[in-house]
Design brief:
By secondary structure, this protein is mainly alpha-helical. It has helices at residues 4-40, 46-67. Helix 1 runs antiparallel to helix 2 (46-67). The longest helix is centred in the first third of the chain and has 37 residues, at 4-40.
């Protein structure tokens, strides 16, 4: 059986791992946004715009889940 201290340390390790992942995602979000803006400055077919919209939506959803 795990001691109270071991359970607490495991919990804190998981929290730190989530925090590090979230920090990395925020950094990646900035790069993704810059890429999308550069891409959208040029004329694009509607299919490409739909794919970009879906990708951005997925990125936002992932970030929201990690924040919660």
């Amino acid at each position: 059986m795990l001691s109270e201290r071991e359970r607490t340390e495991t919990f804190l390790d998981k929290i730190n791992e989530i925090r590090n992942t979230h920090t990395q995602l925020i950094s990646d979000d900035g790069e993704a946004i810059e890429t999308v803006v550069s891409f959208l400055k040029k004329s694009q077919p509607i299919e490409e715009l739909i794919l970009i919209s879906e990708s951005v939506n997925n990125l936002v959803s992932t970030t929201k889940r990690l924040i919660q």
